[in-house]
Amino acid sequence: MAHTHFEHHGSDHNKPHAHSGHEHRPYGWALLLTLSFAVVEAITGWWSGSLALLSDAGHMFTDSLSLLLAGAAAWLAKRPPSEQHSYGLARLEILAALVNSLFMLAIVAGIAYEAIDRYQHPLPVNGSVVMLVALIGLLINLGVGWLLTRGEDSLNRRAALIHVIGDALGSVAALTAGLVISLTGWLPIDPILSIVVALLILVSTLNLLRETIHVLMEGVPPNISLNTVGKRLAGLEGVMRVHDLHIWTLASGQVAISAHLNLRELAAWPRILNEAREVLNHDFGIGHVTLQPEVVERTSVTFHSHRHE
Fold it and tell me: Full-prediction pTM beyond 0.90?
């Protein structure tokens, strides 16, 4: 019976995750737009003397790297399972999200350092040029953001999107700074707005970083209760107890479970297995299921079926 279960379960694990065949294409177009405008923005920021514009250009350069990383991860994640990687390479998207989050933290630190220095030592800024370039940058960032929203939802895509949102905020800050400087000549607005943008980016990045680390640490997905799943399995007809229950995320949209089920009689296992798989998939969205039947087993953590106690 155990061998039958392994064969049935293994067929599911060997199925590649349902990624779109063109999942990586939005990243390619986004990369082209972002990198092209980053060059223009850097030159203009240097010529006009705007820290907000230079910061945004530096941000867009790192965004280009992050988009390249995200696109490569999305492309590799479509590769089917192999003998070396039985789940495929889908978790590369999680690693890309982690690297991009760390990139964002470095960007925030760099912007803050430059902003403090510029606040203490203000330099002349050509407000009109800053406004024009920042407006164009904002439009490009909105276009890139729209491209990324067309892709499949994942931590990898969200990490890339946070980069783009940060770019958009940077463009808004540069646009506002250019307007204030043109109207009032008040130069401190440039580094002040850069700090505000850096703080906004920091909050989003820390949230994403915490979620990414949770996945890498094989934590239980936040939308699933370990106790609820255990009690549902223990409530199946013929199941006495559930123990050694583990639930974790393989990659975005792929949740796995493993558990030991104590049974009244082993002959009921085929029916219990089918019912358990249906409940886990329909009620909790868990598609990778590994369940081991046992006649008697006790551990420190068990989920009891009130029906049989």
Answer: no
